[in-house]
Structure formats: C-alpha cells, structure tokens
Write a structure and sequence with these properties.
The protein is an alpha/beta fold. It is 36% helix and 20% strand. Helix 5 packs parallel to helix 6 and helix 7 packs parallel to helix 10. The chain binds ligand BES, manganese (II) ion (MN) and zinc ion.
C-alpha cells in the first residue's frame, strides 16, 4: 500500500508523473491554479470552456502537464487528472473520497507509481459546514489508498496491461503556507483507516478454502501480537464446553473446525464497547441447501467478522482512548450426516432454546451467542454487530445502505452520525413489538425464521432476544459488503464495509 507524504508546494511545481486535481463543476480556474494553467498554455481553462472537462461527479479528465515537456527538462507535473467533485452545493467528504479514489485508480492504470493530490484549500474553506482542511485531507487519503488497491494475489497469468504496478507513494500537495502538522495527522488517520479496510477486503475476497475459521483466528492472533492485545480463541471443544450451543449447532456439519475469537483492546477507562462480527466463512445453507447459482459468493458471509477485526486493528493503530472488545464467531455452514436438521432444538449460550427451522438462517444463531457472551462476560457500555444477515436487506435497501436496527436511541443516533462522516451510510428500520410475533415457536423459546415479511427486522428481533438490557445496534451489511458494480474507489468484489463506520463510532464515543 502506498506511503503518504504531505508537502507544501504549488501545483505547477509539483514534480510528479501524475497530479490529481479535484474539480468543482462549473467553476473557473481558481487563482491558486493560474500558474499551472499558464504553464500548460491555458489548456486547463480551454478544457473547461469547451466543456470537455466539466468537473461533474466521478468524472476523470486527463491532460498533459508542463513536467517533462521538450525532452526531460521542464518542471512540474507530467500529467493532470481533473477529478470531478460535482456541484459546490453538494461538496462532501464522500465526494472528495470518490474524486481521489477515481484519480489514483486511473493513475495506477496509467502505471504511475508516484501520485500527487492537490488539496483544494480555497474550495473547502468556502464550503464551510462540517468540511475542514483536516477531514478533507483524511477523506482524500482514504480515497487514494482505497483506489490504489487491487486484488490480484491469486492470479499467476496476466493478460496485457492487466497487472499494474502498485502505487508506491501518494503526495498530498497543500498550497504553500498551509499548516502541515494538522494535515499530516489527518492524512495518517485516513491512511490507517483505508489500510485496515483493504485488509478486510483481502480477507473477504479470499475464497473459503483459503479463509477458514482457523485462518481468521490466526489473523486475529497476529493483530493481538502486533499490539499486545489479549486474545481468547476457543476451538470446537471449547465452544461446546463454554455452552455456545447455537454456534456449535451451525458448526456441526463441517469437518473444518469452528473458532470463537475474542480480542480485547484496552485503550481507555470504564466498561468496554463490543464489536461483534458474523464469521461464516462459507454459507451453503446447510441441510436447507441454497441453490447452486451464485452460491460461490457466500464466501463473503464472513464480511462482518472482517469488519470487526479490521476495525479493532484500526482502533489499536490509532491508539483511540477506548476499551473495545471484538467478538467473532467463525464457522462454515455445510450439510453432512452430522449437520443440524431442520426442526432441531438447541440450547443457546443465553439459556434460551431455539427451534432451528431453516439451517440457512445460521447467521443469527452464531451472532446471538456472540452477543450474549459479550453481554455476560464484559458488561459492555454498548455493542454493535455487523453481519451479512439477510437477503431481505438487499431487497429493502439494495447496495447503497447498511440496514440499522437496535434497542437504544442513543447508539442508533451515534451510528447515523458515524455513517455520515465515514461515508458508510446506514438506514434505520423499525423494531416494533408486533414483529416479534413472527418468531414464536410451538416447541421452543424462539424459532430462527420469521417467514418472508420484514426479513431484516425479524432477523434483528432474533438478535435482540439475546442482548439482555445492553444498549445494542445491528448492522445488516448483506447488500453493502460485496460490490456487483465498480465504484470510483471500489473494484467489483469485497468492499470492506464497516471498518470505517465502526472505527468512527468508537472514535466518537472515546
Ligand atoms: N448469508 C445469508 C444472507 C445473505 C444472502 C447475505 C445473500 C448476502 C447475500 C444468510 O445466512 C441467509 O441465508 N439468510 C436467509 C434467512 C432466511 C432463511 C430466514 C435469507 O436471507 O434468505
Ligand atoms: Mn444462510
Ligand atoms: Zn449466512
């Protein structure tokens, strides 16, 4: 992943193969770029005038800069990438993230290993609101590091231009006179968040034969070792001994061992915050087998686990003053002669009995045990779980928003704020009492499916039955953890969603 530099340099002097210039739609060349425009013979102004470049959202326009002209001698950037921010009134951190991501991604396609990003100081200052120079720098760096990332570790044969070299350095170019100390700290925060998100993307993209519950546990142990954190890891026998019966029921069908993973980061005072992540490394549905079409995508059913673990890594790396514990139940969900049968009744960690009517509703089983365990062992001040819990969430919200539900107005509002800041947007659904009826079982305390109506809500209601009186919120990331179409800082595949959101939530409470 690229190194990040912050320097004070005017745009026309930045000695780089590519300079990304975020651009507002419909704005003339600002004063601070007059020299750059002059150095390219007014090409910037003409591109805008002819409307070849408009600055519209996500647009990337390439033109040649003064650098390297006439052989090698001339100073300044060799190429300029005008990256559209859209209209001034719509300027936001997410627009900046997208512009930087699109620019650095294009720079990588151009095989540039050194990329500059011009910091649009005057436009940000004029925008006011929640935008300031520091969070602008953070968002630009996030976009840059996310946009520079590719997942090609499993390819050995490449077609022409398919493998591009890694971007080695991203230089944030601030106008001379800007206070660099604050910018450097913000850039560092952005770099850490994006690196941790890329870590989660790698785990989620790797197939289920490479990322087993044991591998997730090893990754967690490695994070613990690096930061000197307490790690507790239970194997199948330990899970059964501890009474995590709902998790054990899901794991029964697999030869591959499950793991129950707990990481504790003690950075602050008081009751901890708990982050719980669903870690189903492959979801075949179990005996309630899924159809074959698209089943391969169910390697991403551990995206919640990836988010919780990578967020904990970010929290430790940022030295946030908070006590945080990550709890990850990790297992496969496979059919076999030992697998849990539809109709089986099991005893959960919390003591409640569960009638498992559909073995494909396995996420709520393992997350319920993890939430109950976190509540009992840590008495957390609040807990949040992230889980690819329901296909119904994709029906309800598509790929644009995380489903948000919970039992505590304060935590829900905090997550909405964190969603707006991080750009990982959440949308609330109601948890009214009436929906609970759909989970009434004839034979046990609760059943694990609530039928077709309101699937996101009944999934969340199931979890709510296991959190006791702890303040809790649930993030259904089924629609947002995997990208079917690419975005400016997002190739197809794993998104690493939740890392920025969870870290921002913890930061806001610390
Ligand atoms: N992992 C799936 C949910 C899912 C589906 C995530 C598609 C991402 C994309 C989950 O374990 C599941 O199978 N849920 C069932 C629940 C139902 C049986 C009540 C579902 O959504 O169909
Ligand atoms: Mn399932
Ligand atoms: Zn699942």
């Amino acid at each position: 992943m690229p190194k990040i530099d912050v320097v004070a340099v005017s745009a026309e002097r930045a000695q780089l193969p590519v300079l990304v210039v975020p651009w507002l739609e419909g704005e003339p060349v600002p004063d601070v770029l007059r020299n750059l425009d002059a150095a390219v013979g007014g090409a910037l102004a003409r591109a805008l005038e002819k409307r070849d470049a408009r600055g519209s959202k996500d647009e990337v326009f390439l033109l040649y800069g003064p650098g390297g002209a006439g052989g090698a001698g001339a100073a300044g950037p060799e190429r300029l990438l005008l990256c559209g921010l859209g209209k001034r009134a719509d300027l936001s951190l997410e627009r900046l993230r997208r512009a930087a991501g699109a620019g650095v991604s294009r720079a990588r396609a151009l095989r540039a290993t050194q990329v500059g990003i011009w910091l649009p100081v005057s436009w940000v200052a004029a925008a006011g609101g929640t935008l300031d120079l520091a969070n602008t720098a953070q968002a630009l760096v996030e976009g840059a590091v996310l946009g520079a990332w590719r997942f090609d570790e499993l390819k050995t044969v490449f077609e022409d231009d398919e493998r591009t070299p890694e971007v080695e350095r991203v230089t944030l170019c601030a106008h001379p006179g800007t206070d660099l100390a604050a910018l450097r700290a913000a850039a560092d925060t952005g770099r850490i968040l994006a690196e941790c998100q890329n870590l989660a993307r790698n785990w989620v993209n790797r197939p289920a034969n490479l990322v087993t519950p044991r591998v997730l546990a090893d990754e967690a142990q490695e994070i613990a070792r690096r930061h000197g954190l307490e790690a507790t890891i239970l194997d199948r026998a330990g899970i059964e001994r501890e009474g995590l019966g709902a998790l054990a029921a899901v794991a029964r069908g697999s030869e591959e061992e499950p793991r129950f993973i707990v990481l504790e980061c003690a950075g602050g005072k008081g009751a901890p915050l708990a982050l719980v992540g669903k870690g189903v490394t492959f979801d075949s549905g179990g005996l309630s087998l899924k159809p074959a079409d698209n089943m391969e995508t169910m390697k991403y059913d551990m995206a919640g686990a990836a988010a919780a673990l990578a967020a904990l890594d970010a929290i430790a790396r940022l030295s946030l003053p908070a006590n945080v514990v990550a709890v990850v139940p990790a297992t496969e969900n496979l059919p076999s002669g030992r697998a849990t049968r539809p109709g089986d009744v099991v005893r959960s960690y919390a003591g409640k009995t569960i009638e498992i009517l559909n073995t494909d509703a396995e996420g709520r089983l393992i997350v319920a045990d993890a939430l109950a365990y976190a509540a009992a062992k840590y008495k957390p001040a609040a807990m949040v779980d992230a889980a690819t819990l329901t296909g119904a969430c994709i029906v309800a919200l598509g790929h644009q928003a995380i489903g948000l539900l919970g039992n505590d107005e304060g935590v829900l509002a905090e997550l909405e704020r964190a969603g707006a800041r991080s750009g990982e947007r959440v949308w609330r659904l109601p948890l009214w009492e009436e929906y609970r009826e759909q989970l009434r079982s004839q034979v046990a305390d609760i059943k694990n499916t609530g039928g077709r109506p309101a699937g996101v809500i009944t999934g969340a209601w199931f979890l709510r039955e296991f959190v006791g009186d702890v303040a809790w919120a649930h993030l259904d990331i089924a629609g947002t953890a995997w990208a079917e179409t690419e975005g400016p800082y997002q190739p197809k595949g794993a998104t690493g969603v939740g890392v920025r959101l969870l870290t921002e939530w913890v930061r806001g409470r610390a």
